[in-house]
Design goal:
It is built from 6 helices and no strands. It is an all-alpha fold. It has one domain: Four Helix Bundle (Hemerythrin (Met), subunit A) (Up-down Bundle), CATH 1.20.120.1630. Helix 1 runs antiparallel to helix 4 and helix 2 runs antiparallel to helix 5. The radius of gyration is 18 Å and the shape is elongated. About 35% of the residues are buried.
Length: about 200
């Protein structure tokens, strides 16, 4: 097991842990649940399932990959040729950068942090800090994190996790934009005009 691979496992597990801790803290500060996938008129079951699967598999697959590589791994866990250590190092740097951005943006939202979107549960518009250059910096950070993880563990299975996360983010952003547009009206429309959806 190489240092880069150990570092990647540490980063993904630390990210998932801190994501959950920040979510619990935000819920306590808000005095209400911030888990909104099952609330409201918008159907969020598909992005919710994709996010949960991405996080669970993103954290578990690197460990499984390292364990089975010692034996005779199935085809979907055999690393693709990616250039070895240089791509792994780039991947680790992307992971650290993506995790830092996602966690900073999540923390920056404060009491407005929500997982999912539902009418009557919308916080105020956050348009400073990382939200001044992207309307969705948490998702951008997560995609960078998981893309970096794939560079460290370039397997078909890990690529499927990245694809699932990207699809989840795209679907969820469309839902959130509809909900925020209805709930926040013109101020949100103005924010959408000023700041790009992604980067």
């Amino acid at each position: 097991m190489e240092v880069i691979e150990i570092g990647a496992v540490a980063v993904i597990w630390a990210y998932v842990f801190l994501f959950l801790v920040f979510t619990v803290v935000a819920a306590r500060r808000a005095g209400t649940s911030v888990w909104l996938f099952g609330v409201g008129a918008e159907r969020q079951m598909i992005p919710a399932m994709l996010f949960r699967a991405s996080f669970a598999l993103g954290a578990a697959l690197p460990l499984v990959t390292l364990w089975v590589l010692a034996g005779n791994p199935p085809w979907f866990l055999i690393p693709m040729s990616m250039g070895g250590a240089p791509s792994g190092l780039v991947g680790l740097i992307l992971m650290i950068t993506g995790a830092a951005l996602a966690l900073y943006a999540q923390h920056y939202m404060g009491r407005s942090w929500r997982i999912g979107a539902a009418e009557g549960h919308v916080g105020k518009i956050i348009d400073g800090g990382p939200f001044s250059f992207s309307r969705n910096p948490v998702f951008v950070g997560q995609v960078v994190l998981f893309a970096g993880l794939w560079l460290v563990f370039p397997t078909v299975a890990q690529f499927a996790v990245v694809a699932a996360l990207i699809l989840a983010a795209v679907l969820q952003v469309r839902i959130e934009e509809r909900v925020l547009g209805r709930e926040l009206g013109q101020p949100y429309a103005d924010y959408r005009q000023r700041v790009r959806r992604w980067l």
